[in-house]
Write a structure and sequence with these properties.
The complex is a heterohexamer, with four copies of chain A (343 residues) and two copies of chain B (54 residues).
Chain A (H helix, E strand, L loop, with lengths): L1 E5 L4 H11 L5 E5 L9 H4 L19 E6 L5 H12 E6 L9 H7 L13 E2 L2 H4 L8 E3 L3 H15 L8 E8 L14 H4 L3 E5 L5 H9 L4 E7 L5 E8 L6 H12 L5 E3 L12 H4 L5 E8 L4 E8 L3 H15 L20
Chain B lengths: L1 E2 L6 E2 L10 E3 L6 E7 L2 E5 L10
Antiparallel strand pairs in B: 1-2, 3-4, 4-5
The chains are: A alpha/beta (343), B mainly beta (54).
The complex binds NADP nicotinamide-adenine-dinucleotide phosphate (4 copies) and zinc ion (2 copies).
The site of one NADP nicotinamide-adenine-dinucleotide phosphate has 31 residues of chain A, from helix 1 and helix 11.
Main location (chains A, C, D, E): cytoplasm
Subcellular location (chains A, C, D, E): Cytoplasm
Function (chains A, C, D, E): Involved in both the arginine and lysine biosynthetic pathways.
Chain lengths: 343, 54, 343, 343, 343, 54
């Protein structure tokens, strides 16, 4: 199948180029960039220096089967007709088609240009929405912090441990690639290295997705820490009734035992006892785990993903695989590295 | 195949399992002590409380 | 005044050597180490290569005015008689004398050898306990995570915004120096770089100090992140009655306006809007700030310290200054650096 | 084909487990560890948590086609008979079979137990020794610093720009995984982060390999820097006769144009102009490039590899592919990531 | 004495503000910034939040005793009259007055506006030029890479081990603060973390300073590595006649034994055996050391500084202290930290 | 005060120095073994060759 990446010079666009190129069923026929038009893809992404492809203008879209859009929020809603003219299936990585109600865009974003299309879009996260993906033609990959949070909490809802009225604090730690390739003073190496920096103390937009798909309001705070890839969500959960470790194992194994891209990590021995971004970096895996704090009637849920993969490009390819009835793991086999630094 | 007493997942064990051996559960990582081999019986191994410092 | 550092080859011990050596009123006459006996202090601490002092055996204590003990938990309670024989004032950095009740040691630690001395000890944190420090002869420097947490929450209690029954989640992020100089596999560079690693999901011992000194039970979780120095506490607080930003500014300015080592940072512009460890690294400053999440009836309080300074050695010297009636900031003038990495 | 990894719990052993498991023609039937016997491979290597395999004792070797030994120097020469009994082909990652002359082991190491086998061994580096690998039964993967250095300099010899009498300074920068999983004080996160640390100022053992395979004595100095994976060699070369950039391009293209795992990077635009470890991290690629310093009659050659891949496990699998007549790139398709941190 | 910092919002300007503010004999009366005019100094430099000073326009200079200019190359030569009108002594951190000959500016820079002033300027490095600093009114702080290199090689010239005709390779590794506060894509955290990146393979401008002050042409290559502060120069030196370790110790002790800011580190035990930036970070110390490679007739000299201190702001204050006859170490007492990360 | 045999710098030593003790030179870091105390005689201590890995 022929595939194009709009926004191919960006961070998630580069990952899409890599994944599509290495995918057994896809062929990368186009990657767009206005800034790097006519330059090789390797100019922007050194790991793709061996690719024989040059960036082209997003105004000249090739006819393809699937188009991945990795552009900033607002671009896809503006160009969606062109995207759909060029491709049978559009997978959008921005927030433009993640929420079903136009009103949510008014509240959390700057409104929506094409509200009538929202009903056509499917949220990409397979663990949440697998059943609706086959045959989907407009797919919206989830936000990375929302993905980590939803994956952590979902089993508690599926097992009726949470109903939606409980208090949930989500304390997220993310790497610098979340900000995209564009940079700025706060993103410079000298200012951004070694930080634990509250960057969205309250009111982060991903609250909208979590609220929409889990039906719960969450207290959400995001910190920038010193890694490049990775999003780690620590959910502090206060269920109304006491739960046991057995209940929790039942819930998490029930939801994820057959999931190809979720691994459970809750205690045990060795260096890596709970989910952490290093353990999944570069891969499409999510790690999820929990601990019980009986004294405080609290559960602590940990969830870790690579924001470039499970949190964006990998999730997009995973959803496209399902949409087309391909092997779910096609093109997503890389398991990550050990040892690995701040990847 | 035996069930892990911590998380309930199946634990794959090798053939020449011996009483007293410690194995870990691939799902939850729990350290399990082999109490019997026929049938296989597992119990949580007394965990070495590792201090991760402070 | 003559000063000795027991445990001078360790991480906090090295900082004490540096601070005592640079202090206008103290003279460093002894630093102990069993492992490095007879070696120069610079052998363990390269920044002190210019010091003309060798480590000596802790069994041969010099007679001094003040003895700083920077030994692992349990050592001071065992050697306290020798310490008090050698020095008029003992400032202990371990947990051995932080809690007033022996029962707390039974619950959180492995009991206490000398419970009768607990009543003599003063908790070092001046912002909490300044009035009791002048003339104190047994001083217990607070735990680093507890110090960060207490400094964040204290104004809410002093201003009656919290009473002690509320739900408080404390999500802490710490650097690798917290683990001391001894190492181990999980502490190796390859395994520890770039992590967001839940290392104390529940039941961390510092809960005891927070509970003791603020009178509130907290839901406490600690993560290791990729920095060497620094502890950052994010407190998610749910007060019973609504508060305004004005109330909060009143509370925090009320508590800290005259404190020489607390800076407020809550919003504003630029790269550094909220407290973060980089901004205080190497200094004895704490930064404290907050944000209001009205939608969730939540306050988020951020607090950042250097665990080697405000979280241990700096706090110890600060308390000693007060105990002896010296200028509070003597020997603690270094303000930290900018730019700075993961210091 | 059935494959075993002796030393499977170590750093290069973990990479071998990953590569063998993902290889289309190999099946991972055994990974040994004495320390972690009976534990799952995922206990040591979190990225392999999904593998259904437990470590076994190296004394009980399975019968396999190929055995990879990833043990410290000295172990393979001691157990080589057992290895060869268990497997048709032995690929050793240690230094034990890298040098053809026993005398070199006397000079650079502590002698050799089985000098009579040295003549049977083939050096694994395909760019240097491809022709001798098909059918080889004892293969010695090169040292990582030697590999980086040889790849940088080889074209200068193949194009007769160097003859072996010239002065060559090699200034190497390496990551912490080079030291293996065992740790120690200098390897702790607190001491090892952010360093530029001369760790082998002179007399590094890899000089022996370079001298053996290129026929030149080099001035070799190795620095530890803050990355986990990666070895970067900067070769300062003073040829006897002037060369032009055209000569250099001719030499490097001549040697590497058809090599599947070497990419040239010499100037050009963008962020990544010259070889650097980030651009190849996680992959089996080497990047090689050069610059001319006419004023000083100097060439500067840059060469960057991932020491865990091209510098050890990847090179070993590459050589095994050639030995068995498989597709050279089988199991080594991962191209690395962008963006990526200190992987 | 009253002092002003022009370019106070930049990296070296921030350090000057910090040093001047903490200096016993200086009072910080002005810090300029066009971008941050009227904002507090703490807005740009969070470690200086407690300072009660706002940036002002460089067009409105206060009358002071000493003016430190921390502006990009070219600014001081343009505004030198205004600077000298405002202050008795001008200490410039840029390259504008480092070289005595206008021709050198034509060759290495873009020419010079005020060549007639070059003869008035004194190079700030006290170890090289102490005798000419007392009473100097125009002082040029050395380049950071040049400073590290000169400090490493100087004793070899002073002891006649080098004469100037020998081959010297200088391989430098630097942190990201060298690039200043302005940023750019290559300086972003995601692209700059974890690098070993050749950024000046050949032809670096600091060659001019080294050549001018040591009288030798050097083969100079600079790499960016993952630290914020720090410059480390490894000099590979090939003397014409053999030297012994005793000769070297004699040379280095002879040059530096009485220097307040140079420490020797050459072997010995422990983690920190040779000079490295971590050991001096935040301080005005330089560490210098060497090793003999008899087999290759080579000396390896290591030299490490903090580019923000000994490599710029600290050197500037040190020189100003000498110019005014103050205690050389006034305001420069901070000895650096241990442990410390990538400061 | 005694001279370091490696670098020639003065080595400050403590009073109760004993034969066989190992001290390090503050200038060059060399490990020095005390061979005699009256007068003080120092020799390079046999260095434990520490492998920094590769
Ligand atoms: N980074 C993450 O972790 C992450 C995770 C989940 C979702 N996302 C979402 O993914 C999208 C891309 O993020 P990113 O981090 O990859 O951003 P990025 O690095 O800034 O890349 C943006 C890309 O979009 C292109 N672009 C920008 N404006 C455009 C326009 N008007 N028309 C066409 N192309 C345009 C840019 O190239 P040219 O300007 O050269 O054309 C560039 O290739 C965003 O919507 C983001 O929210 C990102
Ligand atoms: N690191 C932090 O951030 C931090 C913060 C707050 C409080 N603290 C507390 O401060 C104390 C020291 O911590 P650290 O991180 O500096 O630890 P560290 O680096 O491990 O140093 C421990 C020191 O104690 C000495 N020591 C150990 N056992 C001893 C004994 N039985 N008798 C005499 N000396 C002994 C050691 O030297 P020898 O073995 O050579 O004698 C070493 O100098 C601990 O109680 C810790 O909880 C640490
Ligand atoms: N790290 C690199 O970048 C790199 C690059 C090129 C070459 N190499 C070479 O590759 C080899 C492995 O290096 P590494 O970094 O992976 O080391 P490592 O992490 O220390 O691992 C060593 C492995 O060998 C096993 N082992 C140790 N002694 C053994 C013995 N006597 N018998 C059987 N197994 C034994 C260990 O497991 P148990 O002790 O549990 O059995 C462990 O699995 C070394 O020879 C090294 O020089 C390494
Ligand atoms: N960074 C180092 O390690 C290092 C080491 C040695 C020497 N140096 C030299 O020190 C100087 C400053 O370097 P830096 O790294 O501190 O740079 P920086 O962070 O970019 O700061 C430059 C400063 O100069 C000001 N400035 C720029 N153009 C100006 C103009 N035309 N008139 C007045 N002010 C102007 C800027 O503020 P506004 O634009 O807001 O006015 C800013 O405060 C450079 O010459 C550099 O070569 C730097
Ligand atoms: Zn289990
Ligand atoms: Zn000496």
């Amino acid at each position: 199948m022929r595939a194009a990446v709009v926004g191919g010079s960006g961070f998630t666009g580069g990952e899409l180029c890599r994944l599509v190129d290495g995918h057994p069923d896809f062929e990368l026929v186009q990657a767009t960039s206005r800034e790097y038009e006519n330059k090789t893809v390797g100019h922007a992404h050194p790991n793709l220096r061996h690719l024989d492809l040059r960036f082209s203008d997003p105004a000249d879209l090739e006819s393809v089967d699937v188009l991945f859009a990795a552009t900033p929020h607002g671009v896809s809603m503006q160009h969606i007709d062109a995207f759909q003219d060029a491709a049978d299936t559009v997978v959008d990585l921005s927030a433009d088609f993640r929420l079903p109600e136009a009103s949510a865009y008014d509240e959390y974003y700057d409104g929506h240009d094409r509200p009538e299309l929202l009903a056509d879009a499917e949220y990409a996260l397979p663990e949440l929405n697998r059943d609706n993906l086959p045959g989907a033609t407009l797919i919206a990959a989830g936000g990375c912090n929302a993905t980590a949070s939803i994956l952590g909490l979902l089993p508690l809802f599926e097992a009726d441990i949470l109903s939606g009225d409980e208090r949930v604090v989500i304390d997220v730690k993310v790497g610098s690639s979340e900000g995209g390739a564009s940079g700025g003073k706060a993103a410079s190496h000298a200012e951004r290295s070694g930080v634990v920096r509250p960057y969205a103390p309250t009111g982060h937009r991903h609250e909208a997705e979590i609220s929409e798909y889990l039906g719960i309001d969450v207290s959400f705070t995001v910190h920038a820490v010193d890694m490049i890839r990775g999003a780690s969500a620590t959910c502090h959960v206060f269920p109304d009734s006491p739960v046991s470790k057995g209940d929790l194992w039942g819930a998490y194994r029930g939801s994820y035992e057959d999931e190809p891209f979720v691994r459970l990590a809750s205690g045990g021995g060795g260096v890596y006892r709970y989910p952490e971004p290093k353990a999944v970096a570069g891969s499409n895996f999510a790690e999820v785990g929990f601990e019980l704090d009986a004294a405080n009637k609290r559960l602590v849920v940990f969830s870790a993903i690579d924001n470039m993969m499970k949190g964006s490009a990998g999730q997009a390819v995973h959803a496209a695989n399902i949409a087309y009835g391909l092997d779910e793991t096609a093109g997503l086999e890389h398991t990550g590295l050990h040892p690995v630094g701040a990847p | 195949m035996t069930e892990c007493i911590e998380c309930g997942a199946d634990v794959t064990l090798h053939d020449d399992l011996e009483v007293g051996e410690i194995v870990d559960c691939a799902t939850c990582g729990a350290e399990l002590e082999v109490l019997g081999t026929d049938p296989v019986e597992l119990d949580t191994a007394p965990e070495l409380e590792e201090d991760w410092g402070e």
